[in-house]
Design goal:
- By secondary structure, the protein is an all-alpha fold.
- About 65% of the residues lie in helices and about 0% in strands.
- α3 packs across α6.
- The longest helix has 18 residues.
């Protein structure tokens, strides 16, 4: 085999392997799945329920129920095997008069929990991008 034939064969092999389909794992799997989401929302809920500006919105809401709903909803949104079957965001937040500033407090709490469990900024931003549309279903515009 000549050097030129060897180089062409190597380039062809690289091209073929480069075009081979690789299955990209979901963001859900990438972050560690249910266990990671459960930890993120466990940490978040503890902080949310005791926060002086937004904690009152959660009085009477069982922590475990909220945690399960947040995990299921986020799991579904980021490619996990879950199916969220809870109330719509519009329904569960109607008549609460949530302000945009209060919504962002909650977002910052969840971001802090994501960082605390070791998610990268890229993973954090990908999750927030999936959750962002919920804003307009929860705040009082």
């Amino acid at each position: 085999m000549t050097f030129r034939t060897y180089v062409l064969s190597a380039l062809l092999l690289v091209a073929i392997l480069g075009c081979a389909s690789t299955s990209r794992q979901s963001l859900y799997d990438e972050i560690g799945g249910h266990q990671t989401l459960n930890t993120i929302f466990g940490v978040s809920i503890t902080r949310i329920y005791t926060h002086p500006e937004i904690g009152h919105y959660f009085k009477g809401v069982p922590k475990q129920h909220l945690r399960e709903q947040l995990v299921a909803q986020t799991c579904e949104l980021i490619g996990g095997p879950c199916e969220y079957d809870g109330e719509s965001m519009l329904e569960s937040h109607k008549d609460l008069d949530i302000k945009e500033r209060e919504f962002y407090i909650l977002v910052e709490i969840v971001q802090g929990a994501m960082r605390d469990v070791g998610l990268t900024y890229q993973q954090e931003n990908q999750i927030l991008k999936k959750l962002a549309p919920i804003k307009y279903q929860t705040i009082n515009l």
